[in-house]
Design brief:
single chain, 225 residues, three-stranded antiparallel β-sheet, globular, binds zinc ion
Length: 225
């Protein structure tokens, strides 16, 4: 099974990525980790990436694509893989389409974990305040029992730091602008929007359910060999 996982910062993508990786026994490959690993290992791809970053430039699609191919050729990807943070551009998506066809891989299943902006802001700004009793929470070290909800009275928590909110909002706008065309590339195919504004368990259960037919299909395809 080939899974492409999309989701804005604060959507719980990292957690779902780990759960899916464990459940299906496939590696979760994040572009950021891949980039860091190449740089640390001092490979020629890593050196090239480092020189881009040192100049303050973005790493080119071509370089990211090369790193991805190298990573996907490793034996742990034989049973499938999950990509987190790739493709980031329409060119990368087109490259992946071509690669998947060429290698006879199963059609990627695109899972888009989405969460309303206000909820993301509530989740990602560290200081939260109850909209009713004004009790203060901190998602880093004084979490409410239920995400985004006051323990005392069940009222919604709101971000307390306006600067934090501005920063988060900017980051989310950037994310949506960048990802919109990539998601549009997949719409109409194996594209599944998933409501990420629920508990980790509920979200995981839904993703598992929608992956089941594809997993069964790829198991059938692999069994004769
Ligand atoms: Zn309260």
């Amino acid at each position: 099974v080939v899974i492409l996982l999309f989701g804005p910062p604060g959507s719980g993508k990292g957690t779902q990525s780990r759960l899916l990786s464990a459940k299906f026994g496939i590696p979760a490959i994040s572009t950021g980790d891949m980039l860091r690993a190449e740089i640390e290992a001092g490979t020629s791809l890593g050196d090239t990436a480092e020189s881009f970053l040192a100049r303050g430039d973005l790493v080119t699609d071509e370089l990211v694509n090369q790193m991805l191919v190298k990573r996907l050729e490793q034996p742990d990807c034989d049973g499938g893989f999950l990509l987190d943070g790739y493709p980031r551009t329409v060119q990368q998506a087109a490259f992946l389409d071509h690669y998947v066809t060429e290698k006879g891989l199963p059609t990627p299943i695109v899972v888009h974990l989405d969460v309303p902006t206000d909820v993301l802001i509530r989740r990602t700004s560290s200081r939260l305040q109850c909209s009713k009793c004004h009790r203060i929470y901190n998602i880093l070290h004084k979490r409410p029992n239920q995400s985004g909800i006051c323990d005392a009275d069940g009222a919604p928590l709101v971000a307390r730091n306006d600067d934090g909110e501005e920063v988060v909002r900017g980051r989310l706008n950037g994310y949506r602008k960048l990802t919109g065309p990539v998601l549009a590339h997949y719409t109409g195919g194996n594209y599944y929007p998933v409501d990420g504004n629920r508990s980790t368990e509920e979200v995981f259960r839904e993703i598992q359910t929608l992956l089941e037919p594809a997993v069964a299909k790829s198991a059938n395809r692999n069994s004769p060999r």
